[in-house]
Amino acid sequence: MEARRPRPPARPQVRAREAGFLRDLASVAGRALRQIPREPESIVPAVIVPTFFYTVNLGSLQKVAQAQTGVDYKAFLLPLSIVFAVTGVSRASALVTDIRGGYFDRLCMSPVSRLSLLLGLMVADFALVMALTVPVLVLGFAVGVRFATGPLGVLVFVLVAASWGLVYTGFPYAIALKTGNPAAVNTSFVLFFPFAFLTDGFVPKAALTGWLSAIATYNPVTYLLGGLRSILMSGWAALPLAKALAAVAGIGVVSISLSLLALRGRINRGA
Amino acid sequence: MPPGSPLAPAVLCEGLERTFGSVHAVAGVDLRVPAGEIYGFLGPNGAGKSTLVRMLCTLLRPTAGRAVVAGHDVVSAPQQVRLRIGAALQDAALDELQTGRELLRLQGRLYGLRRSEVDQRLDEVLGLVDIGDAIDRRIGTYSGGMKRRLDLAAALVHNPEVLFLDEPTTGLDPVSRALVWQEVRRLNSELGMTIFLTTQYLEEADQLADRVGIISEGKLVAEGSPTELKRSIGDDLIVARVEGDAGAAARAVECLSGVHHVHVEEDKVSVRSRDGSETISRVAVALNKGGFRVRSLTLRTPTLDDVFLELTGAHIERPES
């Protein structure tokens, strides 16, 4: 063995240590938020689709729906448009890029809290989906929609809708972590259709045909829309709001559990 | 021996194994790297180098055996290991949407450094690893060489004790490769950092490593300083490229005085001799007498590839690479 150098000289004082869960969470979320405006293509559809949906459906269905059901259709349709805005927006594709490019490994070689690698992204998603409700709300206000519950109602409305958007991200994250495959992540959008369309989002439940009404009864989004509509159109009411929160929580238990299991599987892949 | 003791090895593997199904990627490796050494892990593609490094970096659990890095077991105390190691794995693992500076700052935060400490380390690291003005550009605009250097800088932000470099110059042009070598030498000589590098380039191991471990099919087949390993072959090499039947040419020279061993590969006849300068003239005469047309005849000392060939019967890299 050759010992050809004197070892070691005085080392600088900086020493690595665990940053702690909250600081890790902020670091991961901060990076994710910085990425968003640098990838506008990932959010442009989420801005355009719900506003387009709201405008077109209002234009084509408002007269018929109001004549048939007697509801204020401008307000009635707004919750479903908001659900369109907040559902399926996540950093799951960016996570797949990290996994495939090796950056996820770099993060895993650091002492970062493993949980924060997922929850940090979700924190960023929550902020993003809150922002994505704004264009639809502005459009609603522009056509004359007013909240029966006032400004506080607007805030609660946004928070409940964004909570739904947040728990839904568990599905694409679970697929991203499980497969590391961008095409598979895109398929998670398929889940969106039954959730969004098999509901009473377009017309009141009483006006649905029998089979759709039956399915809508078991669709948690029906209760989410009911809660949002009550805040918007009826005033403060505990029961619909509680049902909406329960629907969000129920889906959240499933989706977040799946994503956490997938995270554990990804991290322990070598085990 | 307590962790951090100057006598404790920076890297210790005992019977380390990793299997994937029926494939033994790492099949029982024992090695010991003292603190402050540059250890080169040399082997061809698929020999198990990257698998071993991933186990040492806590990304992959060993199937059997034990590995201790910077005084801590990679399985029972992975977090302690992570705090003490830095790694630049085979492909530069970066986020192309961030700027170089953002990536390094994030790296510092994940290792618990305060803002002032991150500032200090960025100054120090960017003094060691030259990224220039590109540090404030998005990484997506970087060249391959710049990405490798940034990856190296990211591995150093938290001031690790042990640095793992997995094929740090694969795919780089000669100028970028020389820059990385220069930086590796500085890290070791100026900071006393232990460096464990894998490579499939003979010259890289020869130039950089204090000691070299040669891995083949998941097993460590030889270990020592490059000089020791080459000396282990002992002989000079006379290499003749002939036209026609190289096997017949080999038979024409194998009985000559001073010839120890003859190896044929395509048109190349490699003759091992204790005293090459004396034997080469006899080889030239024998080939001429045998009517062989000799395209080139060279005398050289053994390389690490010759060591690998001697041990495994195969080359680490093709001669033309």
Beta content of chain A: under 5%
One letter per element, helices H and strands E, the order of chain A comes to: HHHHHHHHHHHHH
Tell me the helix content of chain A: over 70%
Molecular shape of chain B: elongated
Residue windows where pLDDT falls under 50 for at least 5 positions of chain B: none
Could you say which structural class the secondary elements and strand pairing of chain B correspond to?
A: alpha/beta
Q: Tell me which oligomeric state these chains represent.
A: heterodimer
* CATH class (first level) name of the largest domain in chain B: Alpha Beta
The share of residues in helices of chain B is 25-40%
CATH architecture of the largest domain in chain B: 3-Layer(aba) Sandwich
DSSP strand tally of chain A: 0
Count all strands of chain B and give the number. 14
Number of helices of chain A: 13
Q: Into how many domains do the coordinates of chain B divide?
A: 2
Order of helices and strands of chain B: EEEHEEHEHHHEHEHEEHEHEEHEH
Low-confidence stretches of chain A: none
Judged by helices, strands and strand pairing, the structural class of chain A is: mainly alpha
Distance between the termini of chain B: 44 Å
Beta-strand content estimate of chain B: 25-35%
Number of helices, counting only DSSP H or I runs of 4 residues or more of chain B: 11
